[in-house]
Amino acid sequence: MSLTSRAQEKTDIKATYCVPVRAIEESLLPYQAGETLSFTMHYEWGAINSDVGTATVVIDTLTYNGQKTFLCSAKGRTTKLFDIFFKVREDFRSWFTTDGLRPLKFTRDTHEGHYVAKNTYHYDWSSAEPHIDAEVYSSSRGERSLELPLTPCTYDLPSLFYFARNMDLDVVEPGKKYPMTFAIDDDVYNVHFIFYGRETVKVKGLGTVKTIKFAARLLAGEVFNGEEDMMIWVSDDENRIPVQFEAPILVGTASGRLKTYEGLKYPFTALIKKTN
Fold this sequence. Notes:
Layout: H1 3-14, E1 36-45, E2 48-64, E3 67-78, H2 80-83, E4 88-97, E5 103-112, E6 115-124, E7 131-138, E8 142-149, E9 154-155, H3 157-164, E10 177-184, E11 187-203, E12 207-217, E13 229-235, E14 242-248, E15 253-262, E16 271-274
Parallel strand pairs: 9-10
Antiparallel strand pairs: 1-2, 1-15, 2-3, 3-4, 4-5, 5-6, 6-7, 7-8, 10-11, 11-12, 12-13, 12-16, 13-14, 14-15
């Protein structure tokens, strides 16, 4: 990323407003403690067209600094066979309040090929100027202690995922870009969501699902090119769970599809025909 585009991105962040959402009190959220989603990861490039890994996202509750808090644990890994070509191990954890979904802590432990990245964030909302106390490490730049800017619309990736599931579709306009900010590694970035409408899709191994289609711009880095949007299909019911997603990466295309689900808060009515 050029210095000019990075400066522009930082300017855009100052003008960012939160995506319009429904009420975010715990009792009204589309998920609950115990929800577990597992995904099959797929990769296509040239003659390669195969499942290459798995990912699991679990949400639970605990008490953190005296507050009732959600803890999201998101883990991903490539299969032993694909490890030979490009080994990936991802471990993201995010602590955020059950009412208001305010992020409190975030950790990341990433191994992608030869690249390693580790983050530990503590969100300081009580200081005169709210900020993130960040300890970051990467195999390319080493270990650093940083202070990152923090606004009411700044999240880490797991807490942003749960926040966005509350999007108010009575307000969101199709085709319009809705920006949010998220922190990762040593900076805060802008990401936009676009609502494309409703679509019925066939998800391999799951069945036919009524969905809400979104796009999200990815961050350029060691894997993603940052030039194209990630497409996301979310269940068109009260749960709003992702059932399929597709993202262009530096070489080829990565995608994922929902494999199993447990602990949903509401009946999975969007699944209108299960795969036999």
